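User: Fold this; tokens only.

Assistant: Input:
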Amino acid sequence: MKNNRNAFFVLAGLFSLVFIPQIAYADSSWYWISKQRPFDLLPWVALATIAIEALAINFIPKTKQFFKTLGIVIIANLISFVIPYFIEYLSQSWYGSWDAILDSGPIYNVNLLFLILTLAAETPIVYNVLKRYVSKEKVLLWTIILSNIVTTIMVLVIEHTLCYGAWA
């Protein structure tokens, strides 16, 4: 039985080497081909994100508190937009300057981890502040989650369409 398990792991390892090749970019550097980097788009996508989320949260569950909704969505988005950059800075602070970090690789703002961080940061903040202004708390919760998913996908498409680069 133990021999069969060892044979399985050896075959699985060989299979992965052949069919799942790893690409290494040793002694190469990333450069952006597009005029802008994802960080350059941040103010515009942040404004669009805040507008879409605030309007959705205000009109779907009907908070009837537009300026309060807008304010809390702005605060929650500031927190969720800063977290990925802070993590990137901590993980690559040995590069020295902020520009060197942003130019060090294909650092896109949005990915699956960003969506998870956004939901983890924004949902409790927005939900806990605005739940007393709605009659259906579940509708509020799902509106927050779905509007964040929609805006995150929107930003991902914008970034990957307008910002592209290559390894040299």
